[in-house]
């Protein structure tokens, strides 16, 4: 195990979280500043002042990351897949190429998995909170919760029940643990009663949670 | 016997219902993400995936007491504490998260074929890895082969790549019951082919 020098004290963030430092937990790593907000804002300001960080250069990335309806690209891809069989085939076989057709590009690997009458897909990252923010926006807080990360892989049906999703017996729940640089998105089943809907109409009913697997879509 | 890292939550039973409150967005969350996503520019990581590793080696109680942005603020703080006094602006894009992008396939053995039955190693490699404890020693089947990726925990000056497999496990194999299925991406060195059913 590498051991860092723990030299964040040089920034004088004013005290330690009580009882943690030197408390015998055996690692000797840094404890968090009492106010992480003040700490990171001070660190960022320092880097900007030293000319090392250009905040504006990251505006586009932050806008994508923190967009209010950040899953629009994912929703658009789903709606097109529901209405265009060729696009659907591409989305399932080479998702980056399919997103590129929508004008959405990124260097991250992504795989789209299809819900069917036989399979209900559910995405999690048990080791951290990996999530394809560039097509789905900011991950919801529950996705990053310790509870979801712990339980989604062991008792997905109980978790889904908490979200109001009842997966029938005989339909397999397939859980995807996002452990590598590959990200996962669900292609949900198209709701009945939407046969006449346009692609725009369809995109509007796709929810963020359906792209993760914790929502089943219904016609409006 | 290696213990699961503080961050290794998969399959833990000592947690309650999934909390559903939406998060209140605060400006410092963006600072955390900017710092994290820029950290790859400054050479402050010693190993591949080190931002995550800083969290994995935390005291488990401390890890669980921190919120999402507090955790990453801690990782960011430690990485940037290594920034030299005379650091200059590195070339390249503003956002460069430490992690695999360029892929080196030369010298790699051919990947296992889809359909190969594999067993996950009983113990994870030392240091940073991406092999959750619930997979240790379990048997699954290779269902897809991804492009090669950086091996987590390799030294940044000696980056190694391996094939990564999407491996399927039955719930029966993982938990002893259930009819559902799990898929997880595992690096080639995490698994071995199974010759015969034991």
Spell out the blueprint of helices and strands.
The complex is a heterodimer of chains A (220) and B (198).
Chain A: H1 36-49, H2 59-66, H3 72-83, H4 85-93, H5 95-101, E1 110-114, E2 119-124, H6 133-136, H7 141-144, H8 146-151, H9 156-162, E3 172-177, E4 183-187, H10 199-205, H11 208-212
Parallel strand pairs in A: 1-4, 2-3
Helix pairs in contact in A: 3-4, 3-10, 4-5
Chain B: H1 27-38, H2 50-56, H3 60-65, H4 68-80, E1 117-120, E2 139-150, E3 161-170, H5 171-175, E4 181-187, E5 191-193
Antiparallel strand pairs in B: 1-2, 1-5, 2-3, 3-4
Describe this structure in a few short sentences.
Chain A is globular, with a radius of gyration of 21 Å.
Shape of chain B: globular
- Report helical residue fraction of chain B: 10-25%
Query: Structural class, from helix and strand content of chain B?
Result: alpha+beta
Largest sheet of chain B: 5 strands, antiparallel
Q: Please, how many helices of chain A?
A: 11
What can you see in these coordinates?
The complex is a heterodimer of chains A (220) and B (198). The N terminus of chain A is likely disordered. Chain A is of the alpha/beta class and 220 residues long. Chain A is built from 11 helices and 4 strands, in the order αααααββααααββαα. The radius of gyration of chain A is 21 Å and the shape is globular. Chain B is globular. The mean pLDDT of chain B is 90. Strand 3 of chain A pairs parallel with strand 4 of chain B.
